[in-house]
Design goal:
This protein is 25% helix and 20% strand. It is an alpha/beta fold and 522 residues long. A 6-stranded mixed β-sheet has the order 3-13-14-15-17-16, with helices on one face. Strands 12-11-10-9-18-19 form a 6-stranded mixed β-sheet, covered by helices on one side. Bound molecules: 2'-deoxyadenosine-5'-monophosphate (D5M), fe (iii) ion and zinc ion.
Length: 522
């Protein structure tokens, strides 16, 4: 199908407020006179229709012209658009056209003959961990206590089976020189005058200091530690039992034997984030090319689109941000974003979470958008869930998290362990810590809730983040980590700090193999 023709059809439809199924666009594009066909379809659409479907196109075209030949030109049995049902005609001119389209094949000229895979029956999409509407926090001190207790409880549970652990206060009363273990949150990390490391662990009873000697193999791991993450240590108590010397460290981690689930058929998901509509740097041309591409045969297996936050540029997010705004009103930004969303084929399922530029609370977990914003973004009927949330597509679980903590991981860890150039490696550390935003108090704001929604209880098959505007992916213990770039060219701030964004790319994941291909639109 010619890309420009389908793009024209799509923009014509969206400009009139309609969204369209990909197949419907294909049929319109293949008609003898696509413009006339489009007019006919619009004239005959039911009044409440928001989405132009194949059956609308078929019934409009058939109703005005009972002879399938003049609508489709030469009959060609190889050019069935819909071969999932047995074709009505097989090149026999006497076959009668379907009265109304649903499920019935229509033959059209110029169709590539490629079978569309988008059979909604085969799809499945489940959401877990969406805390929208579940917020209990009042911001009191006691809420912070409960959220950290919950974190320690849940992440500590697997670690407790791996070490012979004792509560912090009990360790102080044990006889010196013996072996001891503890499970706790990292409370403090300091270097000593002689270059060793002192890591203070905290549990529900108190704190205890653990000394990592600089020449031990574990010394290198100290560089990876973040405050408030949960881990276990084992070692030998000093004679006075005031400190322990670390022999081993254990992280909640992903088991090396983890085997990800895959889909039973060849189906793909596009994983993107950071659209930043409303910014002067929003790359509408790249976005248009992306959504045009989604209408092509090449993208026929893309049935899901996941958006990991920063739909719009927002207002007042960073100092002097207003100088680079194209749209200054936040609601208008979402309205325009909704228009861009309409360009996505109507038969692609969309799931989205908010980011730090979106109009929800900044502290994490961030609930999904409120009713007003959902209403504004409703044309494509996206699934709107909290940041983070897990969406399971045909058995493949995708943990979606915007990624603000990646700034923290990259700032705190040595360059070779985490950098903007390889954002997926920074994600590996979050997987190892089984927490999307361990360190509290820096870049990442935490909303204290009774439950720590940022803990990764289950091992995801795919971990999808954005935020740092860099594209990178790789596997950690068989979990596919993808940071998905952005749709905003370099801002003045990014120029000043040398961030060179990867803008206008769409990583596409095969859900049956977890292979990734990257499509470039910039
Ligand atoms: O963030 C995009 C990336 O750029 C992310 O790594 C944070 C960083 N960034 C961008 N602007 C600023 C300012 N003004 N201060 C600090 N860090 C910044 P995004 O959330 O998409 O803007
Ligand atoms: Fe962003
Ligand atoms: Zn962001």
């Amino acid at each position: 199908m010619p890309l420009e023709a389908s793009a024209r059809i799509v923009s014509e439809l969206t400009s009139r407020g309609y969204n369209a199924e990909r197949e419907a666009v294909t049929q319109l594009t293949s008609a003898d006179d696509p413009q006339a066909a489009l007019e006919r379809v619009i004239d005959t659409l039911p009044e409440d229709a928001l989405v132009v479907r194949t059956d609308h196109v078929q019934s409009a075209l058939v109703a005005t012209d009972p002879d399938p030949k003049s609508m489709g030109g030469e009959r060609d049995p190889a050019s069935k658009l819909d071969t999932t049902d047995p074709p009505v005609s097989t090149g026999d001119d006497t076959a009668t056209p379907p009265a109304s389209g649903a499920g019935a094949p229509v033959e059209t000229k110029g169709s590539s003959g490629v079978e569309r895979s988008a059979d909604p029956e085969l799809r499945s999409l489940e959401i877990a961990g969406d805390m929208t509407g579940e917020s209990t926090g009042t911001g009191e001190y006691s809420d912070f206590v409960s959220v950290f207790r919950d974190r320690l409880e849940r992440l500590g549970s697997t670690l407790r089976g791996r070490v012979n652990h004792r509560p912090a206060t009990a360790i102080q009363n044990m006889p010196g020189g013996g072996e001891v273990g503890m499970v706790g949150l990292v409370n403090d990390i300091r270097s000593t005058a002689s270059g060793h490391w002192l890591v203070e662990l905290e549990d529900a009873t108190g704190t205890f200091p653990w000394l990592v000697m600089k020449d031990r193999e574990y010394a290198d791991l100290v560089g990876e530690l973040l405050c408030d993450e949960v881990l276990a240590m084992e070692g030998t108590l000093a004679d006075d039992s005031g400190i322990a010397f670390v022999d081993s460290m254990y992280f909640p981690d992903i088991p090396r034997t983890h085997e990800p689930s895959t889909a039973d058929r060849h189906v793909q998901a596009a994983l993107i984030s950071d659209v930043h509509v409303g910014s002067q740097e929003f790359m509408h041309d790249a976005w248009n090319r992306f959504t045009d591409w989604l209408h092509t045969d090449q993208a026929q297996h893309v049935e899901y689109l996941l958006l990991a936050g920063d739909m719009v540029e927002g207002v007042g997010i960073y100092p002097d941000q207003d100088e680079e705004l194209d749209i200054v009103d936040i609601y208008e930004q979402y309205e325009v974003f909704n228009e861009y969303l309409k360009q996505v084929p109507g038969d692609i399922e969309i799931v989205m979470i908010p980011g730090n530029h979106d109009a929800v609370r900044l502290a994490e977990p961030q609930p999904g958008f409120n009713e007003d914003l959902r209403e504004i973004m409703s044309a494509h009927d996206p699934r709107i869930v909290s940041n983070p949330s897990t969406v399971t597509l045909e058995g493949v679980s995708v943990l979606m998290y915007h990624g603000v903590s990646l700034d923290e991981v990259i700032a705190e860890l040595p360059e070779e362990k985490a950098s903007y150039e390889e954002p997926h490696k920074a994600m590996y550390h979050l997987l190892k810590k089984r927490h999307v935003a361990p360190q509290f108090g820096g870049h990442t704001r935490l909303a204290p809730e009774e439950r720590d929604y940022l803990v990764m209880d289950e091992v995801p098959d795919i971990f999808h983040t954005g935020h740092v505007h860099k594209l990178g992916f790789g596997k950690y213990h068989n979990v596919l980590a993808i940071n998905s770039g952005c749709w905003q060219s370099q801002t003045d701030f990014q120029k000043s700090v040398n961030i060179d964004p990867d803008a206008g790319y769409a990583p596409i994941v095969d859900l049956d193999t977890l292979d990734v291909t990257v499509q470039k639109f910039s």
